[in-house]
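Why does residue order matter? Because the sequence determines the fold. Keep that principle in mind as you read this record.
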Amino acid sequence: MPTLRSVISRVRTTNKLLSSDNIISDRAVEKELKSKAITLIRRETNLRRLWSTSTIFSEIPCLEMIQVPLSECCDYHSDRVVARSKHKLPAMAEGIYGYLIQWVRNVERTTKESKRINEMSINRYVNFLGINPRYNRLVYWIDNRYLYCSNPDVQVLSISAYFEDDIPKYLLFPECKCDSRKPSYDECKNPLDLQFKCPGYLEDNCVSMTSKYLIETYFRLVDDKTSDNRDDETVK
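Structure:
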């Protein structure tokens, strides 16, 4: 899979105006590349594609959990306790089926085994509790960018999802010791040298859409500004 730096270079070389322009920063190109990739990937996942691949999903291998009252995330009046991620997750892309989450796993520190957890909306979970207060099925849900788990004793979870934002280093390299999952890249690596999360068959479309948008947007603004300056000079 290409790096973000190499795809940015592709965008610049697709048009002479972009390749020689110093106004459009790599950061601006990166932002549009990711935006177009999200649009294309959302379309594909809505069609039930890409879910079994590893090209678009990123893993947070050791997400530390803390105990909180269930009432924190819903109108459930009791002393029931659940687990919640200590930190908020980066923004995740959404499709017609919800967040683009490939899986959530309960990481066992001692046996180095993991168990996949099923997703359930908080409203459905509360409805089950209303029917049976002893309902103890292991499930997870997302609320306000926090990951929740129905088992309050869970200390560490791992999640694989398509994140719109970069994953902060304090989530990828936490202080909690979790030997069963290791990040797949260097802590000190430049973000531009990380993989560009887009499947190969969509990359050409992503590059051409980004190039077209930058040309139409940035150079139109330059032309409009030049035209305004000319009008001002004419008035004088």
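Residues 17 and 219 are 9 Å apart (CA to CA).
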